[in-house]
Amino acid sequence: MSGCVSAVIITKNEEGNIRRCLEGVRWADEIIVVDCGSTDHTLEICSEYQCRVFHHEWEGYAKQKNYGIAQASGDWILSLDADEEVTSALAGEIREAVNLGDADAYSMPRSNQFLGKWMRHGGWYPDRQVRLFRRGQGEFKILPLHERVEFGRDARIGMLANPLLHYTYPSVRDFIRKADLYTAIEVETIIAENRVPKRLLLSLLSAFPIKFAEVYFYKSGWRDGLHGFVAAMLMASRAFIRYAKVWEMVRSKPSGD
Question: Can you tell me the distance from the alpha carbon of 42 to that of 39, in angstroms, rounded to the nearest whole number?
């Protein structure tokens, strides 16, 4: 049985990405854009496409996506970030999947670009994501980061072969900016859930070497050449920064708290 597809995209100041993202889903029956206050040309670019644009104050990644899903009218939801692109091959596979309707949701591999290179090792690929699902069958679980779609126990999950393209870190500066944002969210969660390591010094000492060894050696990041080495170093630095921020927050709290 055929079905209509609603592409749902969340945005804020994505003028460098949004056109590519929208071009990749021009075939969709409906495009929903949820924007939380762009001040660049994002909305101007969206106006060139047949988008339904909704302004919604930022409530976190999962809640923004769930809000967009609630506005959709299609039988199927295709949830995307603005820095992602659906290729023509993936679009064809999606159309075939929804027409057959053999599953309630589909996962797809995601190919991540780091400093201009499509990474294949170090945990970067296949990075499978469930982004296509029947409307009403799933929603994003409310998590501070790395939100994921939740389904009922009996949901049938299929697998697509063609990758979703993710232009995640075009520069080292962009990695550092996102690392600062993500670690701040992670630390807030650690503090709120009372998960501060009892041996915080040990975490500070071990965070960098453990993460570097995981990415570069255990997950074969070295096979991506110099890009793999730089990525492993930056990811290890992010792991250290997370615990440095935890230490900073614990240290600044009044002793009576």
Answer: 8
Query: Total structural domains in the chain?
Result: 2
User: What pLDDT digit, counting tens, does each position of 237-249 carry?
Assistant: 999 999 999 999 8
Tokens of 206: 């071990």
Is 197 inside any structural domain? yes
Q: Which amino acid, one-letter code, is at 212?
A: F
Q: Residue 7: exposed, middle, or buried by beta-carbon count in 10 A (0-12, 13-18, 19+)?
A: buried
Write out the residue range of the structural domain in which residue 84 sits: 5-168
Answer yes or no: do 57 and 128 share one domain: yes
Determine contact, residues 96/90, Cβ cutoff 8 Å.
no
What is the token pair recorded at 77? 């939801």
- For residue 201, which of 140, 250, 157 has the smallest C-alpha distance? 250
DSSP class of residue 137 equals: T
Query: Do 72 and 7 contact (CB within 8 A), yes or no?
Result: no
How is 207-244 classified by DSSP, letter by letter?
HHHHHHIIIIIIT-GGGGHHHHHHHHHHHHHHHHHHHH
Q: What is the crossing angle of helices 225-252 and 200-212, to 10°?
A: 170
The CATH number covering residue 14 comes to 3.90.550.10
Same domain, residue pair 20 and 134: yes
pLDDT digits (tens, 9 = 90+) for 143-152: 767 788 988 7
Tell me the pTM.
0.91
Adjacent-strand bridge partners of 52: 32
